[in-house]
């Protein structure tokens, strides 16, 4: 079976994701940035821009974390450049990843529907 070769931009995005996660965890001293998880990174083909998708633990921390990440984007970019072997380090654009929240919401809806369905089946069984 042939293995799918990953493009250089995919490998670059993976490297940026790993490096940024470590930088945010150990190098960022901004108290507004709490438990941030980098979920994925998308790089443009010329590596000039990178979309950083992240999630945050805690309901009210989303806006504060977004501001803190945007504020520290220059520092993170500079530190990222020390570890990457590219001519141009991409501009970092932070985007909140809502997919996890959406997944939890959908799971809760499915559970609620299953619960109602089970009650209706039990009710029908009692009527007979």
TrEMBL record:
<dbReference type="InterPro" id="IPR020053">
    <property type="entry name" value="Ribosome-bd_factorA_CS"/>
</dbReference>
<protein>
    <recommendedName>
        <fullName>Ribosome-binding factor A</fullName>
    </recommendedName>
</protein>
<dbReference type="InterPro" id="IPR023799">
    <property type="entry name" value="RbfA_dom_sf"/>
</dbReference>
<comment type="similarity">
    <text>Belongs to the RbfA family.</text>
</comment>
<comment type="subunit">
    <text>Monomer. Binds 30S ribosomal subunits, but not 50S ribosomal subunits or 70S ribosomes.</text>
</comment>
<dbReference type="Pfam" id="PF02033">
    <property type="entry name" value="RBFA"/>
</dbReference>
<dbReference type="GO" id="GO:0005829">
    <property type="term" value="C:cytosol"/>
</dbReference>
<dbReference type="InterPro" id="IPR000238">
    <property type="entry name" value="RbfA"/>
</dbReference>
<comment type="function">
    <text>One of several proteins that assist in the late maturation steps of the functional core of the 30S ribosomal subunit. Associates with free 30S ribosomal subunits (but not with 30S subunits that are part of 70S ribosomes or polysomes). Required for efficient processing of 16S rRNA. May interact with the 5'-terminal helix region of 16S rRNA.</text>
</comment>
<dbReference type="InterPro" id="IPR015946">
    <property type="entry name" value="KH_dom-like_a/b"/>
</dbReference>
<keyword id="KW-0690">Ribosome biogenesis</keyword>
<keyword id="KW-0963">Cytoplasm</keyword>
<dbReference type="GO" id="GO:0043024">
    <property type="term" value="F:ribosomal small subunit binding"/>
</dbReference>
<dbReference type="GO" id="GO:0030490">
    <property type="term" value="P:maturation of SSU-rRNA"/>
</dbReference>
């Amino acid at each position: 079976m042939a293995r799918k070769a990953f493009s250089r931009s995919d490998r670059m995005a993976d490297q940026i994701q790993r490096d940024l996660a470590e930088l945010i965890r150990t190098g960022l001293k901004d108290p507004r940035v709490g438990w941030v998880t980098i979920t994925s990174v998308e790089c443009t083909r010329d590596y000039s821009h990178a979309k950083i998708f992240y999630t945050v633990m805690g309901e009210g921390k989303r806006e504060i974390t977004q501001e803190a990440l945007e504020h520290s984007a220059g520092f993170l970019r500079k530190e990222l450049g020390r570890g990457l072997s590219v001519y141009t380090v991409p501009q970092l654009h932070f985007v909140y990843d809502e997919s996890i929240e959406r997944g939890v919401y959908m799971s809760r809806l499915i559970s609620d529907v299953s619960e109602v369905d089970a009650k209706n089946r039990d009710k029908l069984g009692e009527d007979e």
